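re: ur question from yesterday

yeah so i grabbed the chain u mentioned. its 446 aa long if i counted rite. heres the sequnce exactly as i have it in my notes:
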Amino acid sequence: MNTIVANKLEEKLGDRPVAVAASVTLKTRPNELMLALRWYGNQDVCIERVPVPAVTDPMDVVCKVTGTTVCGSNLHLYHKEILQLRQGDILGHEWMGVVDEVGDEMKNLKVGDRVVASFQIACGNYKFCKEGLSSMCSETNTSTIQEKLYGKPFAGLFGYTHFTRGFASRQAKFVRCPFADTNLLKIPDSVPDKKALYLSDIIPISYHSVVCAEVKKDKSVAIWGMDPIGLFATRWSKLVGARRIIAIDNVPRRLNLAKEIGATDIINFSEKTDVVSAIYELEDQGVDCCIDAAAFRYTKGILHTVQRAIGLETDSSGIVNECLRAVRKFGTISLVADYAALANQFLIGALMEKGVTLRGTGQAPAQKYWKDLLAKIESGEFDPTIILSHRFNIDEFQQLYAVFDKKEKGIVKTFVQTRFSGPPVKGTPELSSFKEGDIKPSAVPA
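ran it thru and got these structure tokens back, copy pasting raw so excuse formatting
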């Protein structure tokens, strides 16, 4: 099913009912415009001026954005690979800022508070929220298509298509946040923006992936994909005491960084094409744990490349199959990378016969871990700036997407500033500019 068909079907079926409603249609501030990144088609995004959002529901806040970024999962949208995109959608799901306006029923936040937002939107009141599983909130996603496909939908997400309800995004100068008492975390002055921003997404997601893979002291783990999630998973694995950490990618800069922050071994799959054999050379019974941080866009071999190209599958099982072959008997695999629908040639026999636990992490319940992870950052135990390579202005998002997609210019993770951001903090990247032809050297060594 493609995006056009999915959108037409959703129109016919109508939205699924929810117990609490957060308005998708926004109120706006009269005569105020802001910059925002909008999607118009495959690899077609641009910065435009759009109305500034206002408080729409009583549990909303509107924030001035002081930091945002681009994420690997944004590339699925950039390439039109997730259902129910619509032209003009505002992208992005990672941001932090300062509270600028509050709704009448707001209890814990006030104008001027520094906050970071979760990438998901939870209501805070019903079953899954009460269990600490905010990403599985049943009341913030009205997508009937997702319900038909999965049985039940997960929570609404910012800037991630109408498959996750179509909430306007965060790659903008202002953001309206529904159920803000649940979805915003106050940040103390001791934690600068350059560190707090990544609590929005990649810090809790990477930590959750390690928890789900059951990585523990004296265990071995192999991690596919050294994007920011994979790199942080490498660091978390080191901090929990893993005996062997194998980092798998084909970008030398990322592999070198993985080695620097905790990987005991690296596998460049452009040089060692048989990844499974390379793992067995290191661990003769297979690794205890596997983490797939790469996902469906990365096919293994011509068969899956062709099947995805002509629509016979949406996702590739190639990396999952490598995990199934490389993990030890009764080992654990954590799928933290995005998978959307159907994959062919899935090695289900290995899953059953080896007694493997194959665990989808789901969209990580950020709020479950927030306070503990903030404490680790504040104490210095975990430093998210280890992967921060560049800083850009928000009006350069269009060029940034294209370069980030191609893994060029040494870009690993960025901090994207707005007019509300403070100046770069000492020890962090200086401002780069595509427009001025001034791309600073990557702060992540080659």
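noticed a couple things. The two ends are 41 Å apart (CA to CA). also The chain has a mean pLDDT of 90.
anyway ttyl
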